[in-house]
Amino acid sequence: MIHAEDVVKSFGTHTALDGVTLRVPRGTVLGLLGHNGAGKTTLINVLTTVLPPDGGTASVAGFDVVAEGAQVRSSIGLTGQYTLVDEDLTGRQNLVMIARLLGLSSRDARRHAAELLESFGLVDAADRKAGKFSGGMKRRLDLAVSLVGRPHVVFLDEPTTGLDPTSRIALWETVERLTREEGTTVLLTTQYMEEADRLADAITVLSHGRVVASGTAGELKAGLGRRTVTITPSDPALASEVLSRNGFEVGRELDAVHVPVSATREVAVVVRLLTDADVDLAALTVTEPSLDDVYLALAAQPRGVLQ
Amino acid sequence: MTTMPASPFVQVGVLTGRSLLGLRDPRMIVMNLLQPMIMLTLFSQVFRTMADAPGFPPGVEYLDYLMPAILVTTGAQAAVWAGGGLANDLKNGVLARFRTLPVTMVAVVAARSLFDLTRSALQLLTLLVAAMLLFGFHPPGGVLGSLGALVLALVVGTGLGAVFMALAAWVKNGELLQTIGMATMFPLMFASSAFVPVGNLPGWLRAVAVVNPLTYAVDAARGFALGAAAWPALAAALGVSSVLLVAGLGLAARGVRRP
């Protein structure tokens, strides 16, 4: 549904997108992960026809973003990093206006607006000016507005940035419902690994305008993140010494010792080494790598690690 | 579903309606009317002896001479507001959304233009009625001639408004636009036939006034009000206004598309 091939976009001497290729199959959610300035919003702008690419090609819902911009715009919805609603209009007026612009009759537009207000929990606030909405409500209205035309493809550009945890979870549930019930294709950008982990079928990591990794969350973790064994030994100093001597990286934190391991059997090796050295273990935990670990590992490496 | 977007005419209607919702604020209406009333009061009192000056058309009341010019210059000043309004819209997130919708940018700027036309028409109509009731404005051209002057003022204001909208879409900064607007409109107003006959202006100013399109607009409006239609001036005013309108809207639409 979304297909970008070697997309390049520069602003003056700054290259915002340096040959980005990605593909989002119909009905799936792609999480686009990256820090500020990685090129996420620029890519969204190109895919939503707001900015023309300098090089490469991109199509959305089967339409070329340059040659068939109008058709692309008829097929998409966008919830931006900054809310794209008219703050001088009420929530209802915003929805009706967009519905009318998308070709609904006045009566259908009002009915559709009422449905959306209902399903986004905005009925009570419907006739207040959007400018007076709280951050979470504004974002919900923004999402509702972007779904007015029942778009095939929805772009969510950092949809939960600046939201409190409750609003964030509510928005996640809405996105999940959308993909489950409507089969909508979603491209989601985020700085939060947790968000990508929860919502995305596949993840692409963008750094300095390039794709540095892509795969499922599991693949990324397996390929890059290492598990960590955390132990609480009777003698932390001795434990650290024994493990370092045997080639393990060791981190100490009060009574705890952290040992990154790359394979499951190394957990057994750690335990055996410590038993042989007569070190008792009060506790032992093995933690899976988080996407944060993956991201940090990638940030430290040149491109092409996992492609 | 892939929606069939509304026709451009419906789009213009919906978008104009959106702007008109903002006009419900009574403070805006009062402020819109206050300024031209002040202008009318000041000018009619300050310059009333002007009619005795040499070079002034004989037998013409200064108020009858002044009022068409007030209409045109008020219309022209509203043009700056049209640009300011668009600059405000550009700051409002909703315009960023329009770029991602199947909405033509020509509809966006045309709607803005229609809204300002509506606002300006209300303003000028109030001004005209006030001039007739409070200041005894009863020109030889009668009510019909006065309305002719009013319509022409609207046409000129709309043409100029398109230019300021193009400028707004280009600079994307409301304050800068207001500054440019003041810096251009005030000299244009005074270096014209608006307040004194062109022949009474000093030489260099007269040269400016002769090529100033506002002079033709004022002369034509004055022709209507004084009951002696000035056809060449009218043709010039309408011609220049239409060119400005088409070019301005086209450039503004292009500018608005660009984020």
TrEMBL record, chain B:
Q: What parts of the sequence cross the membrane?
A: 28-47, 67-86, 121-137, 149-170, 176-196, 231-253
Q: Which family does it belong to?
A: Belongs to the ABC-2 integral membrane protein family.
Q: Name one GO cellular component term.
A: ATP-binding cassette (ABC) transporter complex
Localization, UniProt: Cell membrane; Membrane
Please, which domain of life does this record's source organism belong to? Answer: Bacteria
Chief localisation class: membrane
Please state every residue range assigned to the domain named ABC transmembrane type-2. 27-255
The major lineage groups are:
Bacteria, Bacillati, Actinomycetota, Actinomycetes, Pseudonocardiales
What membrane topology is annotated for this entry? Multi-pass membrane protein
Q: Which PROSITE patterns match?
A: ABC_TM2
- UniProt keyword list: Antibiotic resistance, Cell membrane, Membrane, Transmembrane, Transmembrane helix, Transport
Protein name listed in UniProt: Transport permease protein
Q: Which GO terms describe its biological process?
A: response to antibiotic
Q: Name one GO molecular function term.
A: ABC-type transporter activity
| InterPro entries (UniProt xref) | ABC2_TM (IPR013525), ABC2_TM_bact-type (IPR047817), ABC_2_transport (IPR000412), Nod_factor_ABC_transporter (IPR051784)
